[in-house]
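From the pipeline queue, job 12 of 40. The input is one protein chain; the requested action is below.

Action: predict structure.
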Amino acid sequence: MAEIKAFRGMRYNTKKAGKLEELCCPPYDIISEKERRGYIARNPYNVIRLELPREGEDVYRTAGEILDLWRGEGILVHEEKPAIYIYEEEFNAFNTRRSIKGIIARVKVEEFSKGVILPHEFTLSKAKEDRFRLMKATNCNFSQIYALYMDEEHTTLSVINKLSKGKPDAKFTDSDNVTHKLWIVTDEEVIAGLTEDFADRKLYIADGHHRYETALNYRNYCREQGISKEGDAQDYQMMFLMDMEHPGLVVYPTHRLVRDLPKFDRDKVLDGCEEYFEIQAFDNVAQMNELLLHEYKQGNKSFGFYCGKGEWYLLRLKDLAVMDEMLPELSAASRQLDVSVLHTLILEKILGIDKKNMAAQINLTYTKFFSEAIMGVDQGDFCCSFILNPTRVTEIRDVAAEGEKMPQKSTYFYPKMTTGMVMNDISVD
């Protein structure tokens, strides 16, 4: 099953580079160009110059050159001993302060067909090509893939909670009021115990599907080019591993906004929905989230269909059996997803937005923010929006276990992992 190992992480020498909060950044795929420039203006050693390069004629080669320069100057240094890192994030969600905690380690990448590491979402080729070119130029992971594991007795979590009782080796709070903490574990006996914990476990990718598929491509490329052989460091990638039943785990829904449909007609949408859904009309959104939460707790497949100026409709699926007819080729786990119901019965069948359209985001925009899903329609930028409940973690597990994938943007794990707190220099064992 999953094979993990310690590694000599590459970290910032803050005595030379500056404060950690000036050096780390959010994941590359949620950063705007304006934000990217802002990080560099604050501190020219910010990891964004490596993770999201934009300098020089060949941005990837420039990233490799900057990396070499920073290592040579002692801006980036390697751990003296192989380590497994305990990483914790404290954050605000649902009006409470919460935290999640797991470990960062090197993990042996495996083809999905082996059933050891399982995906749950589809990916885009353009993003994978970008990540592949960056890995070729740097031979590094600057950010970690986020994966979940099952541990009914919570043995690993118990161990890492004990190991992280003391003061963290690194800590900072970012602009979103997320506090990041890192503990460095180098005790060989402890590392051996943690490694053994994962010997019979599968890993379920929560976030970072593009990076994982890139890791497989990069491993294969290195073998084909004679750069590495089986068992070398290119077989391993940096991952954050967390208990699937961690009490702090938060998954937000990703709402759908529909745009640029020339023949959009609210009444036709509602007429089409009548066949499959019970419909309730409302004239303000004040109670929408509360009502959807109630539907969620009842196990109903329900959505908020927002039309603007406070007008919205609660759509509750009458009979889940219709999904057996619509998607007979998929497992029950996939057929019963809220996003499967919405995409199949409404977006595709009624609005005519097919899977290819969705993948290219021709008529769809996604947001995790309820306010954006409402304001976008009110301001006339979108025809309508669909407000969803979050996907359950057990649903993610069940779909992955069936060897299937959810539609894109089915989940939004919060908070995102920071980039730059610890990095994986594949050239260093």
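Job complete. Residues 209-224 form the longest helix (16 residues).
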